[in-house]
Amino acid sequence: MTVRDLILALAVAAPIVAAPSEKPKLSFVKDIVPIFTKSGCANSNCHGSIRGQAGFKLSLFGYEPDLDYDAIVKAQDGRRINRTDPAKSLILMKPTFSTPHGGGERFNVASLEYEAILDWIKDGATYDSAGSPRLKTIRVTPEEVTLVSLGSKQQLSISGTYTDGSTEDITRKVQYSANDESVLDVSPNGEISAKRAGETAIMVRTLGKAVAARIAVIETPPMKDYPQVSRNNFIDELVFSKLKRVNIVPSALSSDREFVRRIYLDTIGLLPTLDESARFLASPDPQKRAKLIDELTDRPEFAEVWATRFSDLLRVGLYDQRSKGGRLMYSWLRKAMLEDKPYNQFATELLTASGNLYFNPTSNFYYITEFSEPDNIATNVSQVFLGVRIECARCHNHPWEKWTQEDFWGFAAFFGRMGVKDTYENDESEITLKPAGEVISPKTKKRVDPKYLDGANEKEQLDEDVREKLATWITAPENPWFARAIVNRVFKHYMGRGIVEPLDDFRVTNPPTNEALLDALARDFVAHGYHLKHTIRLILNSRAYQLSSVPNDTNRADTLNYSRYYVRRLLAEELIDSMSAVTGVTESIPGYMPGTRAMTIPQGAPTYFLQTFGRLKAREVICERDNSPDVAQAMHLISGQTIQNQITGKDGTLDRWLADKSLTDEEITRRLFMATLVHPPTDREIAQVIAAVQGGGANANARRQAFEDVLWTIFNSKAFTFNH
Amino acid sequence: MRTVGVVVWCLFLLAAGVRGDANLPDLGPMVISVFPLGARQAETLDVEILGRNLDGTRDITFARPDIQAQVLSSSFFSVKARISVGPKAPVGLHDYRLRTPRGTHVGVFHVGSLPRLNEVEPNNDLKHAQTIVLPVMVDGVVENDDYDVFRFHAEAGQTLVFDVMATRAGSRLDSTIMILDERGAELDFIDDYYIHKDPYLSFAVKKTGDYFVRVAAATEPIATLLDGSRYSSYRLVAGAVPHMLHVLPAGARRGATSEIRIAGLNLQNVDRVILGESLAEGKVVASAADSLTVRMSVPATLAPGRYPLRAFAGSFEAPLQIQMVVSDLEEKLATPARSRGNPQSITFPVALSGVFDQKKARDFFAFDVRAGERLVFDVDSMKLGFLDDPLVAVYTPDGKLLASHDDRLQQNGDEPPNLDSYLVYTFEKAGRYIAMIRDCAERGNPNYVYRLAIYPGQPDFDLKSLTPELTLFRGRTVPLPVRVRRFGGWSTPVEVWVENLPRGVTSEKMTAEPKDTIVKDNCALDRQLDGTNVDLPLHIAADAPAGDYSIRLHARGVMDGKLVEHTAEILYWWEHVGKVTGAVEEQKLIATVTDLPAVVFESPESLPVAPGKVARLRVQVRRYDDGKSPLRIEPENPVEGVKFENNELAPGVVTAELKLTASGSFKPGWFKLRSGSSVSPPIELKVKTSQEDEQ
Lengths: 724, 695
Known about the structure:
The complex is a heterodimer of chains A (724) and B (695).
Chain A: H1 3-13, H2 28-38, H3 65-78, H4 90-93, H5 112-122, E1 135-141, E2 144-148, E3 153-155, E4 157-162, E5 167-169, E6 175-178, E7 184-186, E8 191-194, E9 198-206, E10 209-218, H6 234-245, H7 256-268, H8 274-282, H9 288-296, H10 300-313, H11 323-338, H12 343-351, E11 355-356, H13 374-386, H14 405-412, E12 418-422, E13 429-433, E14 439-440, E15 447-448, H15 466-475, H16 482-495, H17 515-527, H18 532-541, H19 543-546, E16 568-569, H20 572-583, H21 608-612, H22 631-639, H23 641-648, H24 653-659, H25 665-677, H26 683-694, H27 700-715, H28 718-721, E17 722-723
Parallel strand pairs in A: 2-10
Antiparallel strand pairs in A: 1-4, 3-8, 4-5, 6-9, 7-8, 9-10, 11-13, 12-13, 14-15, 16-17
Chain B: H1 2-18, E1 30-35, E2 38-40, E3 44-52, E4 59-62, E5 67-74, E6 78-85, E7 92-100, E8 103-112, E9 116-118, E10 130-131, E11 136-141, E12 147-154, E13 159-165, E14 175-180, E15 186-190, E16 200-204, E17 209-217, E18 233-239, E19 243-248, E20 251-253, E21 256-265, E22 272-275, E23 280-288, E24 291-298, E25 305-313, E26 316-317, E27 322-327, E28 331-333, E29 344-345, E30 350-355, E31 362-369, E32 374-380, E33 390-395, E34 401-405, E35 422-426, E36 431-439, E37 449-456, E38 460-465, E39 469-473, E40 477-487, E41 494-499, E42 505-507, E43 510-512, E44 518-520, E45 526-528, E46 532-540, E47 547-559, E48 562-567, E49 569-570, E50 589-594, E51 599-602, E52 606-609, E53 614-623, E54 631-632, E55 634-635, E56 642-645, E57 648-649, E58 655-662, E59 669-671, E60 673-675, E61 678-679, E62 683-687, H2 690-694
Parallel strand pairs in B: 2-8, 9-11, 10-12, 20-27, 28-30, 29-31, 38-49, 39-50, 52-62
Antiparallel strand pairs in B: 1-3, 3-6, 4-7, 5-6, 7-8, 11-18, 12-17, 13-16, 13-18, 14-15, 14-17, 19-21, 21-24, 22-23, 22-25, 23-24, 25-26, 25-27, 30-37, 31-36, 32-35, 32-37, 33-34, 33-36, 38-40, 40-46, 41-43, 41-47, 42-46, 44-45, 47-48, 47-50, 51-53, 53-58, 54-57, 55-60, 56-58, 59-62, 60-61
């Protein structure tokens, strides 16, 4: 089969192309450019990089065929094309490795790709005529499929729709890649084969368009006797129905002890006190979990946890010298959470903020760069509020999404009038709105009008702050990203994984693991007035959240579908605040009043402990905390000064208990276990503690030391350092 | 503390350099802090004044006779004084002048109306909070890493006012206020409220009980001194006291009776409002907790300017004041007219008061002008103590921008800025035009008050002495910094000169060209001042008699054939009084004639020394002799157990690094260095701690 035959064959399959009697002329845009995309030549690590490679630059993934044409045919005096002897063209000799090529062989001389390019050169190496159709959309079929059993296969089919309305099967012209290659393989022609149980997406792209197919792999056919699982709300409906589809049985409901420890840490960043856990455990009220959720989410500490979360996201205190502004912004965030300020209002206030950094808390939102450049702001706003990364499109069209440079700079133009003015003191700045301002596209060198992402252009009118229109568009119920992005963040906070991961990378090629759930959460959030507390309570009341963290045989490997509570290491603030609350030993954080809880520190990581456990000194980029355990953390828990101070500090809870003659050693042991792990010690544990305590004889110091050892052991246990 | 010392020296050296002649030292007294920052009416108390060059303080005199001070003792670093405040001394800041043989210093001292107490350490956390009973004034010092925590009782329904006076009274402290509940949970927090970083908040008590108020420094790493030090004094005013937030209109016409409306808190019992010290009496015609309506007649003889508005409930005076303008203009309220299409019609001259009460608030005014008419659009807002940053613009009715103005004096890394707008515009064509005023950053707040005066521009200028104090060294020429500011389109040079000079001191006239001075800010960017700076040279003869002399400044210019002459207004020397700005209470510029020492030392305040080890003492030396011979530096008196070496300085060398070796028997204490008849500031010899060893 020749290339022309192949094209003819495909043309027959597609109803609206030229009649077979006419020998179709190869199109540079439709037929040649995709070869470079599919062969990887136009990738970002090759000639598609911003500076090209070895003097040859292609547009990234064939986004800009006109530029590619110039690069291939015209650049360097046209030396890449040999019209006299087309087979000697560099554009063929390099990828076939007939001449030295840093990228090695991309296709061979017997390949259809080779033949296509050769024929195109022989035909005159022309560009498509003006007005010739361009690829508009691509579609993958099936979009979602479950493969049963390892080794099973599925052919994907890709169709392209052109600007003239015609469609074409382009299955063999596109590039495929699996987001998780351990789950399945995908061939260059779009055939997938299952490797292990799990889920992933196959990304399909060509000519600047990209789509994804969601693929699940299960090892055995669906269970016939899948157990009935009770459901508390629609979250359970959607989580459990997905679990059933992928053959996973959820873990059992968590015990009251598990639940009370977990819910305190997740909502207020602290362990329950002995009184609090005792009251909850003793209550026979069937509604006690729901009531506790309401109570905790009304506490100021709940607002502080979220103020810290948002401080991470909004990069509060990015600049040390702006720490006053950071403190103000933290206070504003805390207050917003206390008031349960509707999130659309919250976002609007930030998006339309201005004023002195030290007097107007929200203006600090814009102080992520020293001069508040529109392009930096655009990147930040899209990532924070839409969960969309458009930054790639600052320099080139986005490789895995539809965003073009025009989209990026149009979005940036919403912030064209923003400026920074020094005001009252040397170190004070004010975010202002200049009387006039504009954004110039680096590509066209022309003024850019504001343009909504995936939307229309906007014009700024006299006496208008166009950011208000942007805020209206962003927070509108119909905005495809706004509500979904925030419910996804909230969901991850409590469930351990976002429905879309990473949280700020919503794109067609990174589909949600449970789209119905994400949509339902977003719809519900909007319907309930954008109140975060409503969504948080909904999640916490779901059975899915309240599942045990103990896996069963079916869900041990599951990390996507919320079939159990995913254990997580406590945040730095949760760890130290919980330790201090248990021991009653005041923790001193430099620069803060003695006794200040770490969760209420607006910015920075003023102690080694906080740094070691992942709190950022400067929130330089939007990213999530690195919450993975490491050796430094282990060493610090074993022998660090912080834990020593906490254990040996005087006038704390331990001293009080030891001085209380009515408390036996056994009772003190019970209290220590309950205060830290919320479960009583086993008889064996009690016996071991008593033996250690009594080993010191009547010596009070030895008794104290023995209990210090108990505390040390608990603080070093996973049962303490993890939420489960 | 070491860092704080360095910063203090930086301030000191900066002050010395800014005077114009960097070669001359500033040996005049410099006050860095006063503790307590003030007194209560009818109170006598002892205060400690900290600073530099305070030794030999002769007296401290207040601008008002009912505040008296007696110097108890003085040293290079401090003065102890007893201050007696008369029962009728008005609440507010009052000027004092501290006099030494080498110069004078004008500073401020606060007088309050509430019971007063000093903070008592330790009160660093909730467990050790100091109990106070409201209402109260608490005077304290926020040391480095210090938190002053006070426990108080409050009743449900009360509205409590918390106000920390620090920078407004010359303190360097950048303070914050936090309110906490009994469990220690934060209920409210404020950092900067007033323009120069002082905080204020009101707290509506929902539940009867005990609460905490915490005063602390703001965490601001680049401004170490502001982060708390022994110089960081403050005054906390706390209680359910009457408190005025703003007045509308923000001005009153002299020779007329006008009705003004005051917004505030706890105003229900206020029965009397007066302007300044009984300059105008206001009759309360209606009162509520959050507002007062007052009818006030302003005498025609009262000079135009800004005056404090004072409120009384019986004999009790509200502890804080607001400012009000007196002028000859008709005072009106902005309607408000928020739309360009529906502006408020006005005729000028007029002063319009309004509030940017919500985000994006902007007021539009329509007026008619004749061809060639020049109008001034003069805004008061920051000058009245409000935090908005006004921007004024003039448009044609169809929206074409003709002119706009933002700040009269942007921050330049030097003196405090003035963000109020001042626009002069000459209309080419007769017709109707639109003026618009808004906050530069389009912010809104119920207390973002502005007063926009619109009047025909009469060319004029003013003259300001940038300092009320000056040290004149015999045999030298000392510059006197003044500024000429032009108004209403004044565009010709202005001649400036000094009068009433003492015997042996001469000067010459200088000319201020009609061009604003450009200075470089901290980032080396050009910043335009709101006028022309001129250094008037004062030549002091070697035999000029020593002493203090009051001298006067004048300026004269001619424009459009009209001769205009003014005397100078004397301003605080802001480097010496922190963020206290404006005119000094007693309009006197005192020049002190004295001798310049042959050698001036700049030495550290202390030196840690370890017994048996060598310590190095680095001293900067400025020589005012011929500088040709080597300089020998020795302790003024022998220091027991300490050997001084490497103490001879070659000609031209400006840094001495003395080698000190302390024996095991050396005694910590103070000493001075001497070279000839010149002596250094005192230096404290301390035993080095192990912590300092590590550093």
